Amino acid sequence: MTPALQSVLSPAGPDAALLAQLSWLLFGAGAVIFVLVAGLAIASIWRRRWRPSSRLLVIGGGIILPLPLLAALMVWSGWQGSRLTWPFSGAARIQVSVTGHMWWWEVRYRNTRTGREAVLANELRLPAGERVYLALGASDVLHAFWLPTLAGKVDMVPGRLHGLTLRADAPGRHRGQCAEYCGTQHATMALDVVALPAAEFDAWLEHQAQPALNASLRGRDVFLAARCNACHTVRGVAEGGRQGPDLTHLASRSHLGAGALPLNRAALLGWIANPQAAKPGARMPASSLPPEDLQALAGWLETLQ
Predict the structure, then answer these.
(1) DSSP string for 241-290
(2) Which of 162, 156, 95 is nearest to 130 (CA)?
(3) CA of 93: how far to CAs of 87, 111, 161, in Å?
(4) pLDDT tens digit string along 242-260?
(5) Alpha-carbon distance 274 to 96, whole Å?
(6) Is residue 59 a contact partner of residue 68, using CB atoms and an 8 Å limit?
(7) Other CB atoms closer than 10 Å to residue 208's CB: what's the count?
(8) Of 45, 115, 154, 196, which has the fewest CB atoms closer than 10 Å, so is most exposed?
(9) Cα three-residue angle 246-146-126, rounded to 5 degrees
(10) What rounded mean pLDDT belongs to the chain?
(11) Could you give the CA distance from residue 216 to residue 141 in angstroms, rounded to a whole number?
């Protein structure tokens, strides 16, 4: 599934379509104002034998031309803004809590009909054609949720929650991004967003709510002995801290480190051994595990589908 272009000009949802219309109008209006003011400047210089007329430029270029256009843009953008989906949690079957950390995303699902919950990281899945409510917050510094193909940018402020309701028109893959500078690895704080057919999404969410399987492998013992559960949780194995991502279904994700690396055995080994090599400044420390334990831990994590 090829990701959609990460651009407000490639809308894949109703709110994004409104924002794309507004963007095109702003581009067009800006171009019109530029051309007209440039034309007035040229005409002023030509009429005065290369001596500019400040009156023509100030009155014509500064008032007569831009003022009506800007006033019309303000009215039209206000009307378009009133058509955006109001963030109301009661209208959505699926509610998702998205928390920005330095530098990864914590994503918690709750099905309001069944009460089932699931936790994952750096990945957001949506039922296509259905509205989903997002409660957006931050754990440490100011972040911003930006998913241009589906919605506008919303700030994520520590100690506060901001709501966003979005809908993907059709199945597809999108890329989100933190849009507020939050430190060293701000640029590599990506969010993988996948819209699925409703039935496929429900099956996926039901599976994500389950605890981890294969809990008796040797890698599990390495995970516990190395105190990985001080920061990470694997449901059914160890309820750990929330300083790091929930790893219960790690192997079902496409990337490590919020988009820093594709998820495969080599990347997993390198990330556990020294995450600073791929993402300098990441809060996960390097590992001192012997090679055989490192292989066992990576092999076990690969089973967490």
Answers:
(1) -SSS---TTGGGSSEETTTTEE-SHHHHHHHHH-HHHHSTT-SSPPP---
(2) 95
(3) 13, 6, 19
(4) 788 888 888 888 888 888 8
(5) 31
(6) no
(7) 21
(8) 115
(9) 55
(10) 83
(11) 38
